[in-house]
Specification:
4-stranded antiparallel β-sheet; 4-stranded mixed β-sheet; 11 strands; 40% strand; 240 residues; Thioredoxin-like_sf; DUF1223; alpha+beta
């Protein structure tokens, strides 16, 4: 009887880790704006994958936002969205940049540089590992209903302007047939498939699951808060 009780308790602990996430101490959020149609992007994609592998247990969160302005040059990136390009333009306005570019890596909404620059990436990892966290994020009640995910979120703390909840695919290898990366197979990491932006401190949301996602894909929700200057103030993630 005691053995059965212990197994039941263990099951509850394991199951709860899949329905609730609450962790945001000293987060570092790397947002890579990339495209499969850009010949300069693969080294940045590889570096992001390396960061993910080496720092996944250290509150380092990486996201690949695929922009759409390279699509007209021979290859349509299957993960690209106009809304991600618009998000990059929002950063450009914040950084007072007249142009947008790929591969652009934004760190904690505070600085940006070419995403393949390993020297600056390493410096950022050192610089932001003691970054102040002013919000704490809780995700729970996650349910999948047909082509959508339903979940609840709650944000506690100060310096909160908005929260991004991004559905990500852990990795994909894509054979590129045309464009600047023709005849190459490209690996992309933590691809943002869908995202929802909220300015309320708590609520229930619905995230669309695109039809290109398969049962073999490893999915996660990465959530991060930003202040009015787009600086990251907290982050968490949960695997689905």
């Amino acid at each position: 009887m005691q053995t059965i009780t212990k197994l039941f308790i263990l099951f509850l602990v394991i199951f709860s880790t899949h329905i609730k996430a609450q962790k945001s101490n000293q987060p570092i959020v790397f947002e890579l704006f990339t495209s499969q149609g850009c010949s300069s992007c693969p080294p940045a994609d590889q570096l992001l994958d390396k960061v993910k592998a080496e720092y996944q247990d250290q509150n380092v969160y990486v996201l690949s936002y695929h922009v759409d302005y390279w699509n007209r040059l021979g290859w349509k990136d299957p993960f690209s969205k106009e809304e991600f390009t618009n998000y990059q333009r929002e950063y450009a306005s914040h950084f007072r940049s007249e142009t947008i570019y790929t591969p652009q890596l934004v760190v904690n909404g505070s600085e940006h540089f070419t995403g393949s620059n390993s020297y600056k990436v390493n410096n950022a990892l050192k610089k932001y590992k003691t970054a102040e966290t002013t919000t704490n994020i809780t995700l729970d009640n996650i349910k999948k209903e047909k082509e959508r995910l339903q979940l609840s979120y709650h944000v506690e703390g100060k310096d909160f302007y908005k929260i991004t909840l991004a559905l990500t695919v852990a990795a994909r290898n894509t054979p590129v047939k045309r464009g600047e990366n023709s005849n190459r197979t490209l690996k992309n990491t933590n691809i943002v498939a869908s995202r929802v932006i909220k300015q309320e401190n708590s609520g229930e949301i619905s995230i669309i699951v695109p039809d290109w996602i398969t049962k073999r894909d490893q999915l996660s929700i990465i959530a991060y808060t930003q202040n009015e200057n787009l600086k990251t103030t907290g982050a968490t993630a949960i695997k689905l």
